[in-house]
């Protein structure tokens, strides 16, 4: 690895995962890869973008939990920054495990790196297994529709899939509604090339004013709200599930509104809202 | 108990036979191959499971249980031969077992049944269909034998049929699919991919098979070993060198320069993992491997 952040290396040592003598857990998550990957993410998060997280005390320090967040544009920069935050802002640090797009597992090197840092292909089997193993799952119910948001749509929410809610109910997992603000400014997408995407095997290729979807230095914020627990077993009718999904979506919309307001005023001292609606602020 | 082991002269067959004898069972063995220093108590028959003399072993044997491990892979046999042994052979074993009143039949299958693909999950469970048929045609006969063996559960309901899907075996015998792949000093790999490999020490595999005989299980069970490791770790710890070759030229170099010979379908196994969940078998039999992943790799390396 080109450079290892000593603070990150120390945090990786403190992860509560069952590593064997080769520094591998039973999913093939590798301490060496974690050190390199999180050193890089921490550099992006702290030096390049400057990301601040609020309400991290709402994320359970142990046991299964599901971080459910919004996508805000370009590529899954929000996911990467939330992973860095869970590693750097939590005490003890936790490894968030996202659900990666399938095409990444087909891509050389990306396939190996993501496998070794616990970011597995987004399959329900993986989600259930990780949650039953009391891991911290990170889910973006907007999926590729969410990362495809253009600059002007950056603080909006598109349709939420409902799979995450059934998985949470089935495994008795608390949902931590999470908002990421600033991704749309860091990677302002002016258009998405779907045909080129098809050629390279990706859902689409985002284009920014500087052509490539690399982030410019931007202040970003992450807001974690209080965990939401729903009483069910995942076998409920679609409209019941949909109403609970809407509750999560509303809470995230509130967080985004709160975050956008904070950005405008420059005052980040208010407590993170723990219920839907603007009055909670 | 009187137990027949088919394929008894194979590496795992020998260990299974010795274990069963040690446990006080009467053991009958069938294999085309000789086993010169077979243990004294073993009632050895040098016959082909597809030929008439094999039926005589059943007829006169008064067998309580059969462990069927006389299946072959692409490393040892050509396609037609494989079809005959794996499919016709398995069919005969089940027919004879039903005809001559065998109570328990254990079919020893392979975890490669599940196949390696970009969207296959880690830790396959027994309910998943065989993806291997699509990705790896050379495994089709083994997949068919596995499914055929499973069909004995309804075809011969009076018989306790167990289908075991075991991970690769590795150990001092240096025989087997994974051992053949790791035989030379150089092991091929595809740059940018480093799949997990799941394996079990051959002694533990034999132990699991014996447990399946004792517990009179019915159904399909994954038999997993210690935790899987990436191919690169497997290569390092077994003292081999990783030979990264781009995917387009790799098939042309296999079988040359000391590299193992692999069929085209095996490319997927160099990119994506096949890892199985053996918790059902462990729960029902109390099985736990005695050798961890490190001891298993070292046992193979220093044999």
State the assembly state of the protein chains.
heterodimer
Classification by helices and strands of chain A: alpha/beta
The number of helical elements of chain B comes to: 11
- Major beta-sheet overview of chain A: 7 strands, mixed
- What's the order of the H and E elements of chain A? HHEEHEHHEHEHHEHEHEEH
Regions with little confidence, pLDDT below 50 for 5+ residues of chain A: none
Count of individual helical segments of chain A: 11
Averaged pLDDT of chain B, please? Answer: 93
Based on Cα principal axes, name the global outline of chain B: globular
Write the layout of secondary structure elements.
The complex is a heterodimer of chains A (281) and B (303).
Chain A: H1 6-13, H2 31-49, E1 51-54, E2 65-69, H3 77-89, E3 96-100, H4 102-106, H5 110-116, E4 120-121, H6 124-132, E5 136-139, H7 143-147, H8 163-171, E6 175-181, H9 183-186, E7 191-193, H10 194-200, E8 205-207, E9 220-224, H11 238-265
Chain B: E1 2-6, H1 11-22, E2 26-30, E3 43-45, H2 52-61, E4 65-68, H3 79-99, E5 104-110, H4 132-135, H5 140-155, E6 160-166, E7 168-170, H6 177-181, E8 186-189, E9 196-197, E10 199-201, H7 202-214, E11 219-223, E12 229-230, H8 231-237, E13 241-244, H9 250-253, H10 279-285, H11 293-301
Parallel strand pairs in B: 1-2, 1-4, 2-3, 4-5, 5-6, 6-11, 7-10, 8-13
Antiparallel strand pairs in B: 9-12
Put the structure in a nutshell.
The complex is a heterodimer of chains A (281) and B (303). Chain A contains eleven helices and nine strands.
What does this structure look like?
The complex is a heterodimer of chains A (281) and B (303). Chain A has 281 residues and is α/β, with parallel strands linked by helices. Chain A has helices spanning 6-13, 31-49, 77-89, 102-106, 110-116, 124-132, 143-147, 163-171, 183-186, 194-200, 238-265; strands spanning 51-54, 65-69, 96-100, 120-121, 136-139, 175-181, 191-193, 205-207, 220-224. Chain B is globular, with a radius of gyration of 19 Å. The A-B interface holds A 20-22, 24-28, 30, 102, 105-112, 115-116, 120-121, 123, 125-126, 129 and B 118-119, 121-123, 190-196, 227-230, 233, 237, 271-273, 292-294.
